């Protein structure tokens, strides 16, 4: 049950340095490092290719076809934040566009993650304000129904609390809970170092079949080579 009609002004954000370092690893590595959890559904796509961000979540609960609470949320943004918007029912209307992006950017927001629609894609791309959305839609919204700001929300299947870390890139969007952020960063660093060693072996010509010791289990499963 969502809390409606409330704005929580004081939230505890993940340490900015941890959030920044997590972003450097990318969504796939962070997702794996955290135990393959926290990933939003692949319906969430960046409006332009190549965007990669991380930051601390300011959460918004929207009502279908109504972007009123995005304007309310703008006041709560601090530099380094990423606005994460869930909707109480599925809706692909264009909740967000160039004017709101201008406001968010002025407040220091790094991106918007919205389980709904976005529009003004050409202008947003030109200004390099990244948005991950469920849809692109020219259909506008109204300002009539209360939601909330800085409450736990479900966005594209992931539970996001205010102050959690969001990591987003071309591969997807991952939420790292604030209390797991430091441990996930350490795990991601270990994973990246391990992958670096594997990358070097593969580049030298070693086969994954041998590096991962796959030949015996493949034979046991019945794989046959025919000349």
Brief characterization of the structure:
The chain has 227 residues and is of the alpha/beta class.
Sheet-strand content, in percent, reads 15-25%
What is the overall number of helices?
7
Give the N-to-C terminal Cα separation.
63 Å
Topology order in helix (H) and strand (E) letters? HEEHEEHEHEEEEEEHHH
The residue-averaged pLDDT reads: 97
Low-confidence parts: none
Largest sheet: 9 strands, mixed
Quantity of strands, as a count: 11
Shape: elongated
Secondary structure class reads alpha/beta
Which bin fits the share of residues in helices? 25-40%
Q: Using only CA atoms, what is the Rg?
A: 20 Å
Give a verbal description of the structure:
33% of the residues lie in helices and 24% in strands. The chain has helices at residues 16-33, 68-74, 98-107, 121-127, 181-203, 208-211, 215-220, and strands spanning 45-46, 53-62, 81-87, 94-96, 111-118, 131-136, 148-149, 153-155, 158-160, 165-169, 172-176.
């Amino acid at each position: 049950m969502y809390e409606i009609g409330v704005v929580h002004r004081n939230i505890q954000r993940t340490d900015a340095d941890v959030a920044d370092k997590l972003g450097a690893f990318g969504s796939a590595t962070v997702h794996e490092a955290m135990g393959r959890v926290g990933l939003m559904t692949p319906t969430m796509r960046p409006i332009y290719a190549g965007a990669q961000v991380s930051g601390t979540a300011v959460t918004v609960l929207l009502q279908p076809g109504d972007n009123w609470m995005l304007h309310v949320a703008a006041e709560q943004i601090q530099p380094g934040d990423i606005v994460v918007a869930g909707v109480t029912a599925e809706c692909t209307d264009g909740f967000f566009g160039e004017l709101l992006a201008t406001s968010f950017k002025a407040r220091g927001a790094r991106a918007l993650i919205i389980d709904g629609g976005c529009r003004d894609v050409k202008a947003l791309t030109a200004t390099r304000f990244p948005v991950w959305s469920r849809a692109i839609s020219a259909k506008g919204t109204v300002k009539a129904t209360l939601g909330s700001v800085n409450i736990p929300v479900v966005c594209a299947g992931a539970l996001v609390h205010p102050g959690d870390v969001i990591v987003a890139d071309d591969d997807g969007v991952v939420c790292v809970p604030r209390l797991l952020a430091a441990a996930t960063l350490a795990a991601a660093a270990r994973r990246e170092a391990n992958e670096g060693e594997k990358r070097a072996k593969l580049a030298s010509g070693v086969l994954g079949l041998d590096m991962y010791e796959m030949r015996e289990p493949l034979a046991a499963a019945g794989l046959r080579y025919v000349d």
